[in-house]
Design brief:
Length: about 140
Amino acid sequence: MKKLLGTVLGAIAAITIVSLADWFAGTLYPLSGELDSADPDTTAAIIAGMPLPAKLLIVFGWFLAAFTGAWLALRVSDWRWSGWIVAVLVVAGGIVNILLLPHPLWMQGCAIVLPLLGGWIAGRLHHKPYPGEPLLG
């Protein structure tokens, strides 16, 4: 049960961080038009017109979401696969995002590489809690 709880909490944390990063990027750098999936050319032009800092915030959100979610999952469950499950879920979300919205090639690569890197770093930083240590302390 601890494995499931850790993985679910990590996934919730990752989803929250990706959403906050997207919201923050959209607040600082509002889109120049309405995203409409029925018109892919206009959507591509709007995404291409996003300033670089907004794109970097979104990409950093993917990394941070995988890192934080994987670390939380590992901390709660103490099962190394829970961190990888969370990282792969962030990769899957990035791939779905790229399939729905046309992103530059470098962002497409980051959608795969950065969440895996974040999950790997979280796994390297994780240590087993010693007896009596609180899970999140």
